[in-house]
Specification:
- The structure is a homodimer of 173-residue chains.
- The longest helix of chain A has 13 residues.
- The model of chain A has no long low-confidence stretch (mean pLDDT 95).
- The first copy, chain A, has three helices and ten strands.
- The first copy, chain A, folds into two domains: 35 residues, no CATH class; 118 residues, Nucleoside Triphosphate Pyrophosphohydrolase (Alpha-Beta Complex), CATH 3.90.79.
- The interface between A and B is large, with 67 and 67 residues.
Chain lengths: 173, 173
C-alpha cells in the first residue's frame, strides 16, 4: 500500500499556519484532493510543583469562544528545538523553569486535515523564572492536585485534547 | 473579563472547513487578530466487541503523511445529530452497529486556531452492519485487547489526540 503526494500548493498564509491544497494518488491508482493545514508543530508540558500539583493555565481561546483549562503549550518558532521551546513556553506561561525534564509521547491533534504534531514533556523541580507573556494571551495559572485533575476530567472541565492525551501518557507511563 | 469578537470574514472555503480571519477585543480594550479554522464538528467512538476488545482502525492520513491507529470517527454532516453521525461512522468504518451507547466527554482538538469539537462515545453490544466506505479512506479495522491498547500507547503507536483523550475518559469514568 503506497500513497504518494503528487502536488501541493499553498492557498493562503496565516500567521501560524498555511492552508495548502494537495493531490494524492492512492494504492488503487486513483487520485484525490485534500486541503491541509500545515503547521510548524508545538510542544506542551505537564509541570509538577514541589507539592505534586500540576500547574495548568486558564486562558481565553478565541477559536472556541471560551476559556479552557490546559497544560502550558506553545507553537515552535523557526529553527527552535522542541525542548528549548518547551522551556520558553513554561516560563512565559507559568513564571517557572524546571530542572528536570522527561519526554512523554507525541500527538497529532487533528490528523484528518492538519499536520500539527505536539511533543509532550513532564517537567519538575521547578524554580521561579520571570518571562514576558505574549500581550494577547491573558493567562491565569492554576495549580491542581492529581485528584483535582481527575475530578476535573470526569466533570468535563478539562476538554483540551493535548492535555487529556498528556494525562493518559503520564497515567500509563 | 470579557472578550468580544468584533468582526469575522471567511478568507477561504475548503471542503470540510473554512479559514476565517477574526478581530477580537480583549478585557484590556486592545484589539487583536486571529486566523481560525471553522469546522462543523465531529464524533469519535470507542467500540467494544463481545470479547472486550476495542475496535480501532488503521488508515492513511495524508495530512501527516503516515498511517495512524485511531478509534472510528468522522465529521458531522449538516443537520446531522451527533449520535446519528456516530452510528453512521461506526458502520462505515468498522462494518458494525451497536445496541448500547454511552456518551463520554467532548474534546477540542486544536483550540489555539481551530474550533473543532469532537463528541466521544462508548459503544458495545455490536452486530454486523454493512455500509459503504468512502472511496478514498482505505481503512483497515484492528481489534485490540485493553492490554494491547495500553502497550500501544506506551510505545507511541497510538498518537492520535482524540483517541488518547477518549481512552483517558474511559479510564477515569
Amino acid at each position: 500500500m503506497t500513497f504518494r503526494r503528487l502536488k501541493r500548493k499553498t492557498l493562503h498564509r496565516a500567521r501560524v499556519f498555511t492552508l495548502d491544497t494537495e493531490t494524492w494518488r492512492g494504492p488503487d491508482g486513483r487520485t484525490f484532493e485534500r486541503q491541509t493545514i500545515v503547521h510548524p508543530g508545538a510542544v506542551a508540558i505537564v509541570p509538577f510543583d514541589e507539592d505534586g500539583r500540576i500547574l495548568m493555565i486558564r486562558q481565553f481561546r478565541p477559536a472556541v469562544e471560551r476559556f479552557l483549562l490546559e497544560i502550558p503549550a506553545g507553537t515552535r518558532e523557526a529553527g527552535e528545538s522542541p525542548l528549548l521551546c518547551a522551556k520558553r513556553e513554561l516560563a512565559e506561561e507559568t513564571g517557572f523553569a524546571a530542572e528536570s525534564w522527561r519526554k512523554l509521547g507525541a500527538v497529532y491533534t487533528a490528523p484528518g486535515f492538519c499536520n500539527e504534531k505536539i511533543l509532550l514533556y513532564k517537567a519538575w523541580d521547578l524554580y521561579p523564572k520571570h518571562a514576558e507573556q505574549d500581550e494577547d494571551e491573558h493567562i491565569t495559572p492554576v495549580a491542581l492536585t492529581p485528584a483535582q485533575v481527575k475530578q476535573a476530567v470526569r466533570k468535563g472541565k478539562i476538554c483540551d485534547a493535548k492535555t487529556l492525551s498528556a494525562l493518559l501518557q503520564l497515567q500509563w507511563l
